[in-house]
Amino acid sequence: MKLLLIGGGGREHALAWALTRSPRLKKLFCAPGNAGTARLAENVAIQATQIERLVEFAQANEIDLTIVGPEQPIALGIYDAFSRVSLKIAAPSKRAALLETSKANAKEFMSKYEIPTARFGVFADYERACAFLDQLAPPVVIKADGLAAGKGVVIAPTRAAAEQTLRQFLVERRFGEASRRVVLEEYLSGREFSLFIASDGQSWCYLGTAQDYKRRGEGDRGLNTGGMGAVSPVPWLSDQMLSQTQQQIVRPTFAGLAREGIRYQGILYFGLIWTAGGPQLLEYNVRFGDPETQALVPRFDFDLLELFQRIVEGRLAGFTCRLKPKTAVCVVAISQGYPGSYEMGKPISGLENQVEQPDLFIFHAGTARNDGRLVSAGGRVLSTVGLAASLAEARAKAYRALQKISFAGMGHRRDIGN
Ligand code: AMP
Ligand code: GLY
What we know:
The protein is built from 12 helices and 21 strands. With 418 residues, it is α+β, with helices and mostly antiparallel strands.
């Protein structure tokens, strides 16, 4: 099969690695890819959001199947554009993607299908939103309806702070059209975790859990990032808690999608929190997570290409996504200053002399080749992943590998998997 993988981060390098292990693969293209995918695939200089160019490329190169990493092309309707010209693509439709692209839509769906989630209201009007604050004790959570590059969620500790944020979102339109409406909801306390499911539109298959580390600093302090590391599976989540989550959240989600007539063909990522009252759904994402995928994929004990093939062909029933009984720890190396402004183009050393080891992976994210030299090309530069029978071993493996790698200003969190 000839495959096109869309995206250029660590998630896509991990997916590319797994796809190239499939005996079904004849040729892999990655658009735009990074220096890591370049070793496994042919990188194509088309951005993930250039939908028409991707369609043309897939047609001209007779691509059998396209796989999408990031949310932006899905939000732009890449499924619809590919399907119109009968190209096979494993991604949900633009309509299905509303589960991620509109938080108001997602919350209304959850409430319609009685999926446990924080009590909420949806508002376009500032005065009405403020009136709803009477019904919520602070802190409250305010979310811009649309995609806001991870910056659209504010936890307001006081009523005054909540009113100020509502004003910025609804009146000043901080995120433009994306903050024309807001979701205002009760704050939940508990432990967050992520759960991944593959769906072919009729059947679904459990792909595992992961915990990501969003804050820059140790002990979950500091600014929010795209993710500083991940662990899979979630160490504290028991089988009983997992089955309760599937029963109360995953099942009603797919029942709801069927009732709405939405044929969901792709990956669905559930952002969850375990509270005193059990699992609650914070959000849906219509794709794999980054960096969760880097920790998830090494645990897959099945042919990932076959999974995607079955997704697009509606043949997931009976397929078991077997997982290795091992734990994976992923630690991300970042550029100095990230998630604020940072410099790129720093030569990366220590990758050439890493000895190949079983169950140790180095996935590139923001990397590029400059005159043949490997250099940083983003905020999150690369990650190391250790896979082992125990969390402690996996952690030690990932950190040992990371310590051999360096570039000017390289940073990372020291407490991933602690
Ligand atoms: P979301 O994009 O909806 O997942 O929100 C981003 C992050 O904000 C989540 O991962 C949580 O850390 C936090 N968050 C969102 N909603 C709530 C809530 N109702 N209570 C507590 N924290 C929340
Ligand atoms: N790790 C969070 C995300 O991919 O959205």
